Amino acid sequence: MWDWIQLRMFNLWGWWPKVIKDPRKRVMMRIYGYCMFGLDSATMIAEFVSLYLAVVNGSFRGAIVNIVTTTLGATAAMKIYTLLVHHEFISHICNTLEDLNNRAIALMGEESQVTMGTRKRNCKLTFVFVGSCLFTVCHYNVRPILVYTLYGERTIAMDMWTPWDEQTSLSGWVIVLIYEWIHIAAAMYGMVVFDSFVLCIFEMVLAEFDVLKIALKKVDFAAEKNAVPIEFCIQFHQDLLVLIAKINDFLIPIQTFQCIMLTLTICFSGFELVSLSDVSMNKAANLLEVLGASTYITFGYCYQCHCITEECVEVITTACDNNWFEGSIKDQKSLSILLERAKNPISFGNIIKFDLGCFIAIIKTAFSYYQVLEAFDIH
């Protein structure tokens, strides 16, 4: 079972104080976590003001980068808020997966863990994603210092409204930079580690489906005493489906907003990069970094949801690929319960169905909106 290292990583910002045993320190860390979230969220106000001013005083094209970064920041704030508010449910998910895995090991031993190594390796690969996204944070935060050192020009990491002009106030420029550094680091760190954590949850759910299929293959309906009772498989399957349904309800708001965010990001980023002739290298790099991270995250969610839905159907094939016809009437009735549940696989999402078809639809929709913008040639 994956050790959920992401939860320990969250505590750098005070967002998962459960790892601290001292109750007083845990409360202090919780307060620190809410303060960091409040600081991150407060910056969103300045971003929205900057976006409004860019639209009112300038052209739509001038506000495109603001729209992309503000939408990304809102997504990050939503995920951090979810982590803070639903920490008990997140613990429940981890504990339930651990319990399912322990039940399988207790009955079948290490034979039930033949695919766990592959699943853990897939979880480790998400840290490559985390590292690449944190590089984006470095690019955003270090650039103003490099520009000031090399050219003496005061720039800020991202467009946001400030009560003073950073070009005339050195202290104001430093304050804005520190404020933005904390905001960007907290937002990107919280978002990418949260997404890495969710992708690992999906991977462990798939691992438990592997365990269930191994158990179904070991059921011998002709034997007088079964090493793996069919009742174990039925209960295991039921508990797994209940957990998946809860995870689905938990992630619907996040995934829905994420799909909308990716559509806007692809549309506006593509329009900015292709339609404008004066796009700076820095702006192009920022847009490509945001676009790449957003696409990877959304694809990962859609792909894993698609795999889980397919595994729900795969249970039917595995259950029937056995000597069920040699079993008693009672065993066959028990097996029919499992098959009836598997006939209605869980689909992630509500208004939007999250699977590979959803990801393809997002790409198509984004390019359709891009063509509309290009046709109107908005200024």
UniProtKB/TrEMBL annotation:
Gene Ontology CC entries for this record: plasma membrane
- Kindly give the Pfam families that the UniProt entry links to this protein: 7tm_6
* Annotated membrane topology: Multi-pass membrane protein
Transmembrane residue ranges: 31-54, 60-81, 125-151, 171-194
Q: Where in the cell is it found?
A: Cell membrane
Give the GO molecular function terms: odorant binding; olfactory receptor activity
Q: Which GO terms describe its biological process?
A: signal transduction
User: What domain of life does the native source organism fall in?
Assistant: Eukaryota
- Name the principal localization, coarsely classed: membrane
Query: Keywords of this protein's UniProt record, alphabetized?
Result: Cell membrane, Membrane, Olfaction, Receptor, Sensory transduction, Transducer, Transmembrane, Transmembrane helix
User: Which InterPro entries has this protein been placed in?
Assistant: 7tm6_olfct_rcpt
Q: Which family does it belong to?
A: Belongs to the insect chemoreceptor superfamily. Heteromeric odorant receptor channel (TC 1.A.69) family.
Question: Could you identify this protein by its name?
Answer: Odorant receptor
